[in-house]
Inverse folding.
């Protein structure tokens, strides 16, 4: 069992002032694998003070110097990659294929951040004006549990590239993964105070960061409910805020689609990370005339999925991250039944043979109307809703009839028609006929899915302010 009782503040590990502890369980087996000590206001204020003190010198570094430091972090992550992947599997329950992908991408974020460190991204001339982009200040980075190394790295890489210093609050469900990242940050030997990490609850550590007058920028990924509170608190000190919040993404299957291929696409989108993903396509919109065909394809597709040991290379369905989250997903399944939806596959309880872990049966509801709870609220588990439509206009209307607007998917044979549908969906990203990842293209949402964009030049700009100087 691993014990985490220190935070990374001002370039070194320091004992936690906070004394509350939380146990870490393997979600696939229920085994106790760790215990962490949670930071408090004192720990957080120390981290903020360190970041504030380090900011003047760090913001004055050259682009080449920042590139070198980013490279150092990437190199240390490469050295610890196997251990990080194993820890992600053990602590989070992620299948080995997914854990490998997100952890290697975490490393790559620091390499990609080097590519945006170009003089033209920081200064331009406009007549007698010199327009410069300058770092906003200390950035508070608040990250979720569903791929925590990925979120920490993406935010940190952009902030450091911009010239900001950072205070990171990882998810409490990811302290073992965060510990490895802290050790990598220490090994990279950045100037003291540039990166600070405090483990602890959002109600204590997170609130201290978002309310501090010495923090000028907040980047948060998580629930819409928490995002609203963060945004409210940030207004008191006029912080710049990026919020990447919840989603209830539609997958529109057009009536000209090859149904077997389309359902394969829809299940992949809907069960990304076993549904524990804000971008998961959890509403499958099917032409009314092809519903029976879709149901047959869904049954076959779900039956072919592998549920099992996250360390097995063919595992697709992983456990929920915690017992509490398992209970939450079960409550949504019960709600779907109570509101009149029909279970096509899956249902309540755990898959046979996996009673020890937090496994949920992959569940697909049919007979769903878009006003049902399971069609409107983010479940964050392997629970999908099939909703029928009559024509493209109704499909678009249903797709947009939720409070979220983070992501969407379209599948159809006619590319021009599919693009026309995609262009009318209110979402930050829409994918047509393929599921791709581009960590250089902007990512973020419409409506209650938040505001601001991450990745690439857009991610860099989120940590910069604009100054104009006039001179003859």
């Amino acid at each position: 069992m691993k014990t985490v009782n220190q935070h990374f503040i001002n370039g070194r590990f320091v004992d936690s002032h906070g004394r509350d502890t939380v146990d870490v369980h393997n979600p696939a087996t229920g085994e106790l694998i760790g215990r962490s000590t949670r930071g408090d206001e004192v720990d957080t204020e120390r981290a903020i003070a360190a970041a504030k003190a380090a900011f003047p010198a760090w913001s004055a570094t050259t682009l080449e110097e920042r590139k070198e430091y980013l490279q150092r972090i990437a190199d240390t992550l490469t050295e610890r990659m196997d251990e990080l992947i194993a820890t992600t599997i053990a602590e989070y329950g992620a299948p080995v294929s997914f854990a490998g992908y997100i952890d290697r991408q975490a490393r790559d974020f620091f390499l990609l951040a080097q590519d945006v460190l170009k003089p033209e991204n920081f200064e331009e001339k406009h007549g007698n004006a010199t327009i410069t982009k300058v770092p906003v200040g200390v950035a508070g980075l608040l990250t979720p549990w569903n791929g925590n190394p990925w979120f920490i790295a993406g935010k940190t890489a952009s902030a450091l590239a911009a010239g900001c210093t950072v205070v990171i609050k990882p998810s409490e469900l990811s302290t073992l993964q965060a510990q490895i990242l802290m050790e990598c940050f220490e090994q990279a030997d950045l100037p003291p105070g540039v990166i600070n990490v405090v483990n602890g609850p959002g109600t204590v550590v997170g609130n201290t960061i978002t309310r501090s007058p010495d923090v000028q920028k907040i980047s948060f990924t998580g629930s819409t409910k928490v995002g609203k509170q963060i945004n409210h608190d940030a207004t008191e000190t006029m912080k710049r805020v990026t919020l990447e919040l919840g989603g209830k993404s539609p997958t529109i299957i057009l009536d000209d689609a090859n149904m077997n291929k389309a359902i394969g696409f829809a299940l992949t989108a809907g069960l990304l990370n076993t549904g524990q993903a804000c971008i998961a396509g959890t509403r499958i919109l099917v032409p009314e005339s092809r519903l029976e065909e879709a149901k047959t394809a869904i049954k076959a597709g779900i039956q072919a999925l592998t549920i099992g040991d996250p360390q097995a290379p063919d595992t697709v369905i992983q456990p929920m991250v915690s017992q509490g989250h398992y209970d939450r997903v079960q409550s949504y399944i019960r709600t779907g039944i109570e509101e009149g939806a029909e279970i096509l596959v899956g249902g309540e309880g755990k898959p046979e043979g996996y009673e020890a872990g937090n496994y949920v049966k992959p569940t697909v509801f049919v007979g769903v109307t878009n006003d049902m709870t399971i069609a409107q609220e983010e479940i964050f588990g392997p629970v999908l809703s099939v909703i029928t439509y009559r024509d493209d206009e109704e499909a678009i209307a249903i797709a947009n009839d939720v409070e979220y607007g983070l992501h969407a998917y379209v599948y159809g044979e006619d590319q021009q028609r599919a693009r026309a549908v995609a262009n009318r969906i209110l979402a930050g990203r829409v994918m047509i006929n393929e599921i791709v990842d581009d960590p250089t293209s902007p990512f973020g949402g419409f409506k209650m899915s938040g505001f601001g964009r991450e990745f690439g030049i857009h991610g860099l700009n989120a940590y910069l302010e604009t100054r104009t100087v006039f001179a003859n």
DSSP finds 15 helices and 23 strands in the chain. The radius of gyration is 23 Å. Residues 250-443 form a domain with the Aldehyde Dehydrogenase; Chain A, domain 2 fold (CATH 3.40.309.10). The CA atoms of residues 190 and 202 lie 26 Å apart.
